[in-house]
Records
---
Amino acid sequence: MAGRRVALKAIDWLAFAERIPPNQRGMYNALKTRTDAISAKLASLPETPAALDWNYYRGAVAKAGMVDEFEKKFKALQIPMPVDTQTSAINAMETDANKSAMEYIEASKARVAEYEKELEKFHNMIPFDQMTVEDYNNTFPETKLDKVKHPYWPHKPIADL
């Protein structure tokens, strides 16, 4: 039947539905309903169109030779199938997107490892209420004031305040 005319790639609606945010659920349902309606209509159509009864038209049309001319032109008609020019470009874009996604995942894993190391530092440090100023400056070196370079209060350049 019309099975060969259906899309080359079937849509996994369950996997698609998992990625839909709640505020777009209505649009998703409308898309799925419309797609199902189109698919059902395509499935109901025959694989080949019904053959024309040229003898009926020969009897119904008064002008002689007109139906024979139409039949000859109809049989000579060849409708070319469109050439797929976009699949290779889409596949290349998909490959690039997968590559960049994998790079992002690897970079994210590195960031997660770095953040876990920093979190472990916070878990192992002395509680703030038990720290001295020296302990605090050793734990967070960016807070240490340089009294030699900036001998006057606030011991930081004014631009850094």
---
Amino acid sequence: MVKRGDPMAPLGGAPRLVLLFSGKRKSGKDFVTEALRSRLGNDVCAILRLSGPLKEQFAKDHGLDFQKLLDASTYKEAYRKDMIRWGEEKRQADPGFFCRKIVEGVSQPIWLVSDARRLSDIQWFQEAYGAVAQTVRVVASEQSRQRRGWVFTPVTQKRRQGDMKEMAGLHVRCTS
């Protein structure tokens, strides 16, 4: 447990380090963030997932099963396109909408945002937390991603292509 005065304790409730992980689907973002948290410990490190509050709010607004939207099921895939569009509309109206939701009540000094897929998400964290917010790009070959269950779909390709190109110079590269 991190105690007051410990060098790893958050300063005034703010994190000491925020790592923003981006990468294509099935690139290994969750694996890398889980491995880091396992090494650092739950009392020091929290994994924050932007997709969680997005899926939860989408399920509430559309009368859907939130738990089924969390797994890699055909149920989630059936709603993926609509969920993406809805999430983009929310972000356009308020770029920090989902970011603010995931940081509420987090007390650990190190935050790993496992799914920072949008440039607007990264910008929000960098504006909110300054130099402690750093980006990490997780990269895997298409063959590795396919072995992990990834299948190309046009919605996957189109939605964030511009953001991915803009983020190319913003991060440390991690190959999984």
---
Amino acid sequence: MFFSKTAVATTVLSLLQLSAAAPAAEKKAEAKAQSGAEMSIKDSGSFTWYNPSVGYGACGWWNSDNDLVAALNNEQFDPQTPNGNPNRNPLCGRRIRVWSNGRSVDVTLVDRCPQCNWGDLDLSPAAFRALGDQNVGRLWGDWQWI
């Protein structure tokens, strides 16, 4: 079988470009995921409620208990915090759709929840009531970035 030098060189060059492009594409996808730009996977967890009106949240905003807001668990919030300043976290202000008990509510991320586990959210009373009875104290369900 006879191959021209040009055909062999072209094939080798193409393979080298593909092998170099794959890690770069993986790193870009990983960086986007870490920056919060492409967080579309559903998470599951428990939902509790807190009073955001007691003070400024981790994002540096004050909210009332009637606002549809949430605090994200520190395991998912903290890695996005640049230079230890949560006010500059790119997740602040992101919208989240929360489902529980056959209901859903859209909330804005304004705080972090240090006592929450991965996948858990702490909701304002208004957001919690949109999903169930506030007296229950804890609900389980799914949520997703929107």
